[in-house]
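Posting this for the archive.
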Amino acid sequence: MSTKLTREQVEQIVKSARERGKIPDLFGVNLGGVDLSEINLGGADLSGADLRGADLRGAVLVGTKIDAATQMDVKWRLVWDIVNQGAEGQNLIGVDLSGAVLIGAHLSRADLRGANLSQADLEMAILPEANLYVADLRGANLSMAVLIGANLHGADLRGANLRWANLELALLSETVLDRVNLGRADLKGTNLEMANLSWATLKKAKYDAGTIWPENFDPAKAGAVLL
């Protein structure tokens, strides 16, 4: 039976390996139920490891090595698949990706209707034409994400970070954008009809004549720039 490691032991193994320019070796270890949240496991060898019940919220899994013997919960195996193999055009309706690190993930045309992406890190994610209808994106980080032509109708983006995001031609009608940071976002041709922009930040966001704003909303007063 493999020895069960603690969070502190995992952190030490990862730190030591990186200091020596080596790959963190977690081959065959028992990490079942261990709190691994926020740990950067990128590039680590998790072959044969048991991660069932481990808390991987905020953990980096890109570049990690797994094999047929690696055991992990369905949610985190899906996250591993997305960040390491991409999920372009895949059916991800209603999936739970809350708290997942999906930085730079390729999700163009993915069907994420009703998905839970709350607190997920989607910085620089590639999401053109993705379907995020009524998705839960509360507190998500979408800074510099590419959302050209994406469907975000009815999505809940309260407290999300969309700074520098490209939302050109995206559908955000009836979207909840309360306290969202849209600073420097590209909103050319974006449909924001009936969106809730209460306390949203729009400083230096770009828009054009094709942008549709909520009734009586003044984008210039909010700091947006007309192109």
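The first strand starts at residue 206 and ends at 207. Strands lie at 206-207, 225-226.
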